[in-house]
Structures are given as C-alpha cells and as structure tokens.
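Question (not urgent): is this output format expected?
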Amino acid sequence: MRSPILNPAVVAAAALLLAACGTLSERPPSGTADFPAQLAPVSQTALAPVYDTPGKRAATLQRVWQLVADRYYDPSFNGVDWTAARERHLPAALAAASDAQFYRALKAMVRELRDSHTVVLTAKESADRRRFIAPQTGAALGIVEGRAAVVAVEADSPAARAGVRAGDVVVALNGTALDEAFFERASAAVDDAGEPSGVMPLPRDTAEAERGRRLRALQRLLRGAPDAPPPSLRLTLQRAPDAAPIEVDLPVVPVGAPPRVELTRLDDGIAVLKLTRFAADVRVELRRAVEQVADAGALILDLRGNSGGDYAMYTWLAAQFMTAAREVMTSVRREGAGQRSSAVVLRPTADAFPGPIAVLTDRRTASASELMATTLVEQRNAITVGESTCGCVVAVRTEHVLPDGGGLRIAETGFVSARGRRMEGEPLAPTRLVLPTLADLRAGRDPVLEEARRLLKERLHRP
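Got this back:
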C-alpha cells in the first residue's frame, strides 16, 4: 500500500508533539462507569473536535505509545520493536479523515504486541464491555468436523425464531462459500495482525491448531471498522448431506449477557458448577453455590465460554479448594527496564472442598478462568476435559481514558504457573481432548460433560 503524502510542516509539528509525554485520566477496567445509557458510536465520516488536527491525533497516539512503553509488563514487548511500531502507524493516524480511521490506526499499533488484553477501545466498546453487551444473532458458530457449523442457539433470539438449529452446517456466510478451498487459503495465511483484539494463540495439538485457523477465517469475514453498524448475516445452512440448502437472514442486535452462576446435582452425587464470568456481581450467588457443593462426592467446574474477569474473584474461589497453603503461581510486573516477581499464595478455608475435581474448558476459557484451571490442575490434580484454553493470561489494572472517552487497557501483570509455565500465549491443553460432533449437537448431547462425569466416577471408585 502506498504511504500517504504528508505536509512537511505537519510532520514537523507532529514530531514536536511526539517529544512530549501527555497523561490520561483513569477509570476501573470493569464494573460500573459514568457512561450515558445510549452512547453514540464514533463517526465513520468525520473527526471529533479532540482529533480534528494532525497534531491532536499525533499527541494522542504518543500518549498511548508512551503509556505502553512505561507500563507493559514485558520489557521486551513480546519481541516487538515498540519504537518502530509507533513510526509505522503514525502516518495513518495523521492522515485519518474520521474517528473510525484514527481508531483503526491506534488499534493496529497496539495490536502489534500480540497481547490478549492490551487493547484500544472506543467509548462505546468500553461501555459495552462493562455492561456485558455484544452484537449477536443468537447463533454461535464454530468449527465441527472441519466444517463451519452452528454450535449453539440462544432461546428467543433471531436465530431461534428463524429456525436455526445446533448442528446445522454453514455452507456460505454473506455470500462467501465456506468450502475446503476457503479454509485452505485461510490456513495458509500467516499474517494475523488484523485480529480484532490481539491474536488468540494456537494450541500445540495439530488438529486443534487447524480448527483455530479456520475459526479465525470466520472471524475475519465478520470484521468491520471500529463501531461500524454490524451487518445482518445471511447464512446458507445444510441440515443433512442430501438436504436442500436453507437460507436465513439474521439481524445482528446488541444483547446483554450478564454473568451468572448455575449449580446442578447429578444423580451420582457429582455437582456441576457453571460460572460464566469472574465478576463481583455474582459473588453472593457463587458463595452460596460453593456452600451447597460441600457434601458432593466430586465437582465439575464448567468454565467453557468464561472469558475471565476480576482477579480477586479468582483468588477467592480458588482458595475454596485449597486444603493447605499453596504458592500457586508467580506474578511479574515492570520495574524500570526489568521485571519484579511476586509469589501468589492461597490459604485454605476452614471448609475447603476436598473431593476430586474436573474442569471443563474450551477456546473461550480465558484470563481468570485459565488461572483457575491451572491452579486446580497443578495444586489439586484436577482433570481438564474439552479443548485447550485461550492462552490469554495477563492482568489489566486500569483503563486510561482517551480524549473522546475511549479507553486504553494495558497488560501490566503477567503470570508464571507454579510449575514454571508462562501462561500468556500458551493455551492449557486438556487432560482429555473431547470435541463435540455434528451428531452430538443435533441430538443435544454434551460429550464433554459426559466424559468428565465418567472420569470422576472412576476416581471416586478407585481403591
């Protein structure tokens, strides 16, 4: 792509601004924030007053760059030449003709770190994260037996009302055929710098890694400009090999998915505790659920789809399963040009659950969920069943507020497990890899839960 032609005077003014290190106010990265009920998206065609000159945009890009330079937990910046990254993205920031284009430049610069948590967010994106709102159709897509398929359908959603079913194979998405040739091209792609929020690391297992590449290909088809209205989705579905294709048009609507706790007791004395997010909002419900599983013979902790959340919630929950004081991992933070390490010690509670534990994971199990799974595997010999986790394990302490209300989140803490495993960028492989088939989805079976239950029963009956 040809670089934009820049006015020398503009470049000189920007260079002066780059020498300064501005500051940004801060807000918590989670919980409630002072956002209006309805927040307008950034403009796709114009620049806000705070970004309407090249100098203002250069100053904001410099502030973002400097905060990362000062606070990012890894002094080597994941092997990225961070100074060169700034110079690569400054021309696009200076030439931006809209807020969306400027945010694209900021996001692209930060994305070079290939870090799961270090991101630039528009004000709307930041507010939506706090409210657990995301654009959805009600149909979750995944890769099953090498093909794009519907893996779940939310009740009372556009997808449910359109008759979409779990196990439907998606043969085309918005007119693009999802055939083997499409996925072969996607698997050969090596440049993942365009991933929406960092790059989800691929698992070590060859088959799982290929599934990850194919899932990335689906995500690329759906990617748009920052805050751009999401397009409706046209799915061409095939319900059986010899059936005629079905075409459905699904509107994309903002849907709230607040964190929840679900507890069930199986008839063999095994309890199943599902937690969708580590959030203070559900601490009371979670405490009550932990009390109720105290007399269970074994526990299945379902962390599938749990993208993480509050670090303090992780340490509290993990302590409920420690039968002795344990140094469960080491946290690392920047200290000048180096790093400072601190031991993470969990102390047992009086009524810690002592029974065998299985943890259900998938590729969306991330952050605090991965801390939890790793702690239980290394300290309680827990079984993990399902897929490899995300490999997205760092911590954000604060969100820096950009001039228009957008946000910058920086990974200021990294983690190394008690057994010496660097957790960011290294998905936790399951004890038992279990992948649902199309037949499982169509029949409503959960083979991951079934296998965890079987393995725990073996442990319970072991002499």
